[in-house]
């Protein structure tokens, strides 16, 4: 009898924890409802040829720009997923497994850099490739932990050129 009671207490505790996490996530989504809808990705046949070979990795999440822990929960931006990143002349496509693709128009791109942490995910130095972009009037950071970290510099240079930075400052510059 004691074993059954202890088991029920443990199960009840886990159910309460899960309910609390779900409630917290819904409250975060409600607080972030001021953010505009995500841009619709263009048709595959209209984006042209990629500027770089696609990069694979894990989409870590999106946060408010400059605040690596303030995860954006609306629009499916808060969920980690395997992803393929492609850069076109018109913008950046994050094709996330199990979620809608995220299209960042070239005009909305602000910068790219490496970082050690984003959306509660902490990595080593230069562990994440982070894209800063404008979502309406707000700036956000979206991060990817790439399978090939050696390509980060090439991605940073290309994204900065597309965003209007030119080759200047293509070193990256870590921020966490």
Show the helix and strand layout.
Blueprint (H helix, E strand, L loop, with lengths): L1 H30 L23 E10 L16 E8 L2 E6 L5 E4 L3 E7 L1 E2 L2 E2 L5 E8 L2 E9 L5 H11 L14
Structure description:
A hairpin with a 2-residue loop joins strand 8 (128-135) and strand 9 (138-146). The protein has a 7-stranded antiparallel beta sheet with strand order 4-3-2-1-9-8-5. It has a two-stranded antiparallel ribbon with strand order 6-7. By secondary structure, the protein is of the alpha+beta class. The protein contains 2 helices and 9 strands.
Task: State the main characteristics.
single chain, 176 residues, alpha+beta, seven-stranded antiparallel β-sheet, two-stranded antiparallel sheet, 2 helices
Give a quick rundown of the structure.
The protein is α+β, with helices and mostly antiparallel strands.
The oligomeric status of these chains comes to: single chain
User: Which structural category fits the helices and strands?
Assistant: alpha+beta
The Cα radius of gyration reads 19 Å
Arithmetic mean of pLDDT: 87
- Give helix and strand order, one letter per element, not per position: HEEEEEEEEEH
Largest sheet: 7 strands, antiparallel
Counting DSSP E segments of at least 2 residues, the number of strands comes to 9
Strand order of the largest sheet: 4-3-2-1-9-8-5
